[in-house]
Design a protein that fits this description.
Blueprint lengths: L1 H28 L5 H8 L10 H27 L3 H28 L9 H12 L2 H29 L3 H22 L6 H11 L57
Helix pairs in contact: 3-4, 3-5, 3-6, 3-7, 4-7, 5-6, 6-7
């Protein structure tokens, strides 16, 4: 009887061991709820490549940006006392008129519905701007618009990096140029509160920062050697430049072909 009980215990232990070893294999094969499964579930096929939920989100965000930033730019041209603010408003109007056309064209080709009015939050920002005046208006304009552009900038980068849809990839490239131009013009007003932007971003960050240690004023850091090609190759491309070809120019060149009909 004892021998039978001992055998049963050995068999039970073997079954438990095999089950423990098999579980990771089973759980790895079952990918439901993972990022890959979510990507596949939200993606549809198109003639221009797979269209993911993040791709569609970019289309909506570009459309929404134009719906509130374009009228905000018009208001700045009419009300802002400084030329830098008026110039920023001019870039917002021209840039979002162009980008909205591109987004609507791509959305029509892909069958993605787009909103026709700003979100409640965006409407609140417009009301906030309308209620302000003078220096308060300029500060609110520069910081509300700069913050909004910075947030959509990260989505553009993500989509440009990961999309498998050629239409969305081109829209992301176009959006990148326009948004960077607007960020540059808003910062040229000299009114952007970079501390507030950094603190807000830090409040939502989860990963610990990485990089070199803080500089020590008592230590002289050697200058690294330049990164340059070796040999005597002939190159045809040229470094990127601002419109005037000078570092620090307050504008980004956004020249690009008109969107396809």
């Amino acid at each position: 009887m004892r021998r039978i009980n001992g055998t049963a215990l050995v068999i039970a232990a073997l079954v438990a061991t095999i089950g423990a070893l098999a579980f990771p294999v089973w759980s790895y094969a079952d990918r439901s709820g993972t990022g890959q499964a979510n990507l596949n579930a939200s993606t549809v096929a198109t003639r221009w490549g797979p269209l993911s939920a993040t791709d569609r989100d970019l289309l909506v965000k570009v459309r929404l940006a134009g719906l509130w930033e374009l009228p905000a730019g018009q208001q700045a041209i009419e009300r802002a006392p400084s030329e830098a603010m008026k110039e920023a408003g001019d870039h917002l109007v021209v840039g979002h008129t162009d980008l909205d056309k591109r987004a609507r064209t791509v959305a029509a080709q892909l069958g993605v519905p787009l909103p026709n009015q700003p979100t409640e939050q965006q409407q609140g920002w417009l009301r906030e701007l309308s209620a302000a005046s003078g220096q308060e208006y300029e500060r609110k304009f520069a910081n509300l618009l700069r913050n909004a552009h910075g947030k959509v900038f990260s989505l553009i980068a993500q989509v440009r990096h990961t999309t498998r849809n050629s239409l969305i990839r081109q829209l992301a490239s176009d959006s990148n140029q326009t948004v960077l131009d607007h960020i540059t013009m808003l910062e040229a007003t000299g009114l952007v509160d970079f501390d507030a932007l950094a603190n807000e971003a830090a409040g939502t960050a989860t990963a610990s920062p990485s990089g070199p240690p803080p500089p020590d004023g008592s230590v002289t850091v050697p200058s690294p050697p330049p990164a340059e090609p070796t040999g005597d190759q002939t190159f045809t491309s040229r470094p990127s430049a601002q419109p005037e070809g000078e570092i620090g120019s307050p504008a980004v060149n956004t020249d690009r072909p008109a969107p396809s009909p």
